[in-house]
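One record is set out below.
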Amino acid sequence: MDTEDRIYVGSRVTYYGSLAEYEGRTFLALPCQYHCPDRCRLDANPARFGLTGPAAGLRLDHVRETSISPAPHDWPADGIPMKFGSHWYMGAYTSDGGSGRARTLHFHTASPTAPYGEAAFHWRSLASQKFLDAVRRLDRQSIGYARITY
């Protein structure tokens, strides 16, 4: 899948699902587990998304990836595509996550009012080697990088 076809957490997406009143509207995609009434797991497969709209309180929960398509967006050149669980993130940099087993991933978003999002990961038990390699690259991009043990 090409980077432009991939749905990243924080992407603007267009909805084409079964709720006709929202068809063709643009939303911001977040992992479903943040506010899902069905309590999605981080590694749920296939990925589900929670969509937030421009109007206050407008939210769609538990949306299938097949019901949305990414809106065009020019991601920053220093962004690093990373998959954690069943969701993709466009990594920007990392910071301390509060313990030796946690990092906070700061990721780019397509939101004009919030260009960065962040998510805390306890990555040792859930992350692939490819993800850990991407974390190391992001650590090198971080301001105030603190050495952590992998």
User: Anything to note?
Assistant: Strands lie at 12-15, 26-31, 48-52, 59-64, 68-70, 80-84, 87-96, 102-108, 116-122.
